[in-house]
Write a structure and sequence with these properties.
alpha+beta, 2 domains, 4-stranded antiparallel β-sheet, 3 helices, 34% helix, Transposase
Length: 128
């Protein structure tokens, strides 16, 4: 999604990272699959390094060939992110949340906060 219109008339634009009105939603029923999958794949990667079978492991993930260790771990995490974690956007005008139905869909469902004064719910706590 690069641009979406809110029902209030405001445009939500997503053309970069680190925007205060965008987030990612981990569904409770998916979290174990995500974290166990990441832990398992990272563990198998480390084991392949220790047993000198790295090339055999990388054959399962050809897009990670030639990458450093950090990039390999990042790639493992990213594959689960792309498969399971949908986007969520907040309209900066009305505070309405737009949640992607599922990661494979470009359909979003909207939710309006009961208190219109509440805005910025997706803004990072680290930057406050």
């Amino acid at each position: 999604m690069s641009k979406m219109g809110c029902t209030c008339g405001h445009s939500i634009i997503d053309r970069t990272d680190n925007v205060p009105y965008k987030g990612h939603l981990i569904k409770d029923q998916d979290k174990d699959v995500i974290f166990e999958g990441i832990a398992s794949d990272v563990s198998l990667y480390i084991e392949s390094l220790l047993t000198e079978n790295q090339q055999e492991w990388l054959n399962r993930f050809p897009w990670l060939q030639g990458k450093d260790h950090r990039a390999v771990v990042w790639g493992i995490i990213t594959q689960y992110y792309l498969k399971y974690i949908p986007h969520i956007y907040e309209c900066e005008n009305c505070g309405r949340l737009w949640i992607q139905e599922n990661r494979k869909s470009q359909k979003f469902r909207s939710y309006l906060p009961s208190n219109p004064e509440i805005k910025g719910i997706l803004r990072s706590d680290q930057l406050s």
